[in-house]
Write a structure and sequence with these properties.
alpha+beta, six-stranded antiparallel barrel, 21% helix, globular
Length: 177
């Protein structure tokens, strides 16, 4: 296997467009997986640091992954206090995960620009009032099956796409090209 060169593991988070520019095929796969269902699962951090998991609609618009929520909802207040989040795509109605399992994590930054909010209202017609956050990505992961192997593809800003294959036996995971 060819040696990989990694940049700073603490590289700055990027927008969805930044991710798509770095890994267009992987970004399209992840976006399509989120667009299969309307509702997904958002993880935020409570004041005491414990996790909170809630439902959420994700929207891909303006080159961003946007997270909208009711005013003063617990998840909005969590993100205002600590912007770290993880978003899990809805796994669907059964256990086969034929489209794989996709999750993203990063920082959620509240959008307060009236022009952007007005444009979002015009295009998306959300129930008002609402909070709107854009996702700054620090990781995107897709887990799927290939025969008997579990294939985990992951991307972080400033690093190449990584693919790891695992089998159900005691063999260690193998990094794939």
């Amino acid at each position: 296997m060819a040696a990989m060169t990694f940049t700073d593991p603490a590289a700055a988070p990027v927008s969805w467009d930044g991710f798509a520019a770095a890994e267009p095929v992987f970004a399209d796969t992840a976006r399509r997986r989120f667009q299969l269902y309307k509702h997904h699962v958002l993880a935020t951090l409570r004041k005491d640091g414990s996790p909170r998991v809630t439902g959420l609609e994700a929207d891909f618009r303006f080159g961003e992954l946007l997270l909208g929520m009711m005013p003063n909802s617990r998840k909005a207040l969590d993100l205002r206090r600590d912007p770290r989040f993880a978003l899990q795509a809805n796994p669907g109605p059964d256990a086969d995960l034929s489209d794989g399992d996709v999750r993203v994590s990063g920082r959620a930054v509240e959008i307060t620009d009236p022009a952007v909010i007005a444009r979002f209202i015009e295009e998306a017609s959300p129930p008002e009032p609402f909070h709107l956050f854009r996702a700054e990505l620090t990781e995107v992961v897709r887990t799927g099956l290939d025969g008997d192997a579990l294939v985990i593809r992951s991307w972080r800003p400033g690093q190449p796409l990584r693919t790891v294959r695992r089998t159900g036996d005691d063999a260690p995971a193998v990094e794939a090209d």
